[in-house]
Amino acid sequence: MNPNELAFRIYQDSEAEQLAKWISSGSWPFHGSRNPSLNEVRKSIADGYYSGNDNRTFWIYVKEDPDPIGIVSLHELTDVTPIFDVRLKTSVRNRGFGRHIIGWLAEYVFTQTDKHRIEGHTRVDNLAMRRVFKSCGWVMEAYYRKAWPDEDGTYHDAVTYALLKADWETGKSTAIDWNKVM
Question: What is the pTM for the complete model shown?
Answer without folding.
Answer: 0.93
